[in-house]
Amino acid sequence: MGTSLQQKNIIDGFRKNDPEILKEIYLVVYPKVRGFVIKNNGDDHRAKDIFQEAFIACWKNIKNDKVMTNSNIEAYLYTIAKNKWTDYLRSADYKKKVSANDIGPLTVVEEEKNEDETLENKKKALQDAWEQLGENCKNLLNMFYFERKSMEDISKVMNVASTSARNQKYRCMEKLRTLSLEIKSNGK
């Protein structure tokens, strides 16, 4: 926990996009967020996504003067991440995935028997899901994953804020995953 002078320096660092301050906050807070997400049915990938969303929200709030200068930024950022993960765990998307994963051991045995067939089914489900995805999501994911454009460049093309583009990318990936799982479970 830093003193209020240190917290003011951290807030100033956020406002100036000071790489040293931002890196220090990442090194202090990310391991805590990762630990929380993993202890609560998450994985590294989800922890990174949640931290990124929380970091952007924290950064925006600081830039927009919504954070008091004596606030503990590490605690604030951790709380945002914790709330985002808790919201995700309560979401319908998560509940669908949990119920689909509840049949775990049976699926594993089945996959061992028919690995090639299962891989083909997954590919087909993903392709079908891609076809059902909206044009905006297709364009965004195509720019990010295939054209390797930065989120900054994508946000300019889409004429939205960088944070909005990141959030849209996340939602599009979730939509693609959900569609793929639905197609896979319905299409066998």
TrEMBL record:
GO terms for molecular function: sigma factor activity. InterPro entries: RNA_pol_sigma-70-like, RNA_pol_sigma-70_dom, RNA_pol_sigma70_r2, RNA_pol_sigma_r2, RNA_pol_sigma_r3/r4-like, WH-like_DNA-bd_sf. It holds the Pfam family Sigma70_r2. It comes from the Bacteria. One of its GO terms (biological process) is DNA-templated transcription initiation. Residues 29-92 form the RNA polymerase sigma-70 region domain. Keywords: Sigma factor, Transcription, Transcription regulation. Belongs to the sigma-70 factor family. ECF subfamily. This is Sigma-70 family RNA polymerase sigma factor. The lineage of its organism: Bacteria, Pseudomonadati, Bacteroidota, Flavobacteriia, Flavobacteriales.
